[in-house]
Amino acid sequence: MVDGWRMIFGHENYTAENVRCDGCKGGGRLADKECKARPCAVEKGVESCACCDEFICDKVRHLLGSREGMLTFMHHKMSSVTQEEYDLCARQFADSMPNLIKVLVSVGKLPPWALED
């Protein structure tokens, strides 16, 4: 995954050892030492950034993406990327959107029909 991040996104600071993150709700491992989302979520006491009145802010904007958005964003690099490489390093961003939509619906920021395919 880290090799894919370097190839596709140009990330140089991540290693297999430091990429694990326990998420905003946890107090454990933090993949990005410069992360602004976790301290903010902890300070505000929100279960998810989606629950925050300031969502979508600049602290999380770069972490959001859909499959279509990721492919569009990476189009200039995609000719040399295999599906396996995409699956290892980019799909996690794209696949997180359905969960985010569920949270947004559960806190009343989106209507229930947003969960329909």
Question: Can you put this structure into words, describing what you see?
Answer:
It is a single chain. The protein has 117 residues and is an all-alpha fold. The protein has a domain at 35-115. It is 38% helix and 0% strand. The protein has helices at residues 2-9, 37-44, 67-73, 83-89, 91-95, 97-106. Helix 1 (2-9) packs across helix 4. The longest helix has 10 residues, at 97-106. The radius of gyration is 15 Å and the shape is globular. The protein starts with a helix and ends in an 11-residue tail after the last helix. The mean pLDDT is 82.
Secondary-structure map:
Blueprint: H1 2-9, H2 37-44, H3 67-73, H4 83-89, H5 91-95, H6 97-106
Helix pairs in contact: 1-4
Q: How many distinct beta strands?
A: 0
Radius of gyration: 15 Å
Beta strand %: under 5%
What is the rounded distance between the termini?
A: 29 Å
Residue ranges: pLDDT <50 for 5 or more in a row?
A: none
Please summarize the sheet with the most strands: none
> Structural class per helix/strand content?
mainly alpha
What is the overall number of helices? Answer: 6
Give the SSE string. Answer: HHHHHH
Secondary structure: helix percent: 25-40%
Q: What's the overall average pLDDT, rounded?
A: 82
How is this structure best summarized?
With 117 residues, this protein is mainly α. Helices cover 38% and strands 0% of the residues.
Features:
single chain; 117 residues; mainly alpha; 6 helices; globular
